[in-house]
Amino acid sequence: MSMDAIPLDLLEVILLLVAWPIFLVRAASTCRQWRRIIARPDFLWRFRCLHRPPVTGYYYDTTQRFFSPSWWPNSGVDGRRFALDFLPAHHPMHGAWRLRDSRGSLLLLDHYKHRDDASRGMVVCEPVTRRFQKIRPLAQSARCYNTAAFLLDGDNAQQAAGGISMSSFKVLCLVYYGKHIEARVFTWGESYSWRDTSIDSESMNVIGVAMGSIHWYAGRRKVVTLDQRSAEFSSFTLPAGTEDWDSLVNQHRLAVTASRDGGVRIVVGVACGGMKVFARLPGGGSCEWVLRKWIPLSSFMAIHGLPWREPWYFSHLPISNHRTGAVLIVTTRMSLSQEPTTTPLMFRVDIETMAVEQMPDPNLGTAYPCELPWPPVFRTITKMIDDHGDRAT
């Protein structure tokens, strides 16, 4: 039976079952008929709902800003194609590009000039396609001493099957003025300028991402959330009397994640090495939280044969590392050599399925994950793939 004899609706179902997007790109390179099916927006939307683009590798914010492929060489992706040598050059004496965030296939960098924080410029780039967009510098007062920057989905991200792209993204900056914080959002494709958005807080500690919103702990049981689509802030209050929330944040023992049923979960690390998971009661008020489950991490890690040592803590940055239903935990491995040492290890733990995935070495610095572009840029990505079949023309 030839492939041409397969009904188109059945062929579409078969292609939807392809495990990874990179294999989907290879399938699109097989023949014109397959490419026409795969390139349809409705097919890409359905595929994106079933399969999240894999992380091709991680960028590390060091002097060299090096890239480490996560599944090279089995994928056939050439790690050299992820170099950032296409960015506008700057003389070392005048500052250097610095990684601030990543989301999907995009990176956010700023140009930091020593003792001249107000002149900072930004750029959003997509390494795999070697494209970049300069962002107008954020005007800052001399009173400003720090900023935090995040990449957000653009306004038409839903049409792009939930992804972020060079034609659809936002940049959020939190500008710290002593005990006061201002929030500003840049939206690509609109007025190409920054706009202020309301926030009333003296401190902001990232505690996770859930249901399209970034969550910060602002002290005194207050959690501030930013809806990434609307770029608007809201807040809710954690219940009194159940936990010492301020202490948990200081110890990095508080995290937020999303459940697969569409709810927000508050995850608390307990002293005995476990985690408590809180869920909000349906239709309840802002403080109607109940204990949903308790996870004994020590015995759980032992079952998987993973090294475990107290104390441990949650890792929140960069937020792009998070997945639905998962939290990042950092523990240590003890070496009993001539000079005993401890090595930090990071794992992603799914609080619902209890699946475990080891993350990049924290010793290398902050790791910024980079995915393949979505929707796929077929003509560009196929150049990176060691595909020995016939290519579409």
TrEMBL record:
Family annotation (Pfam families): F-box-like (PF12937)
Domain of life: Eukaryota
Domain called F-box: residue spans: 6-47
Coiled-coil ranges (or none): none
The protein's name in its UniProt record: F-box domain-containing protein
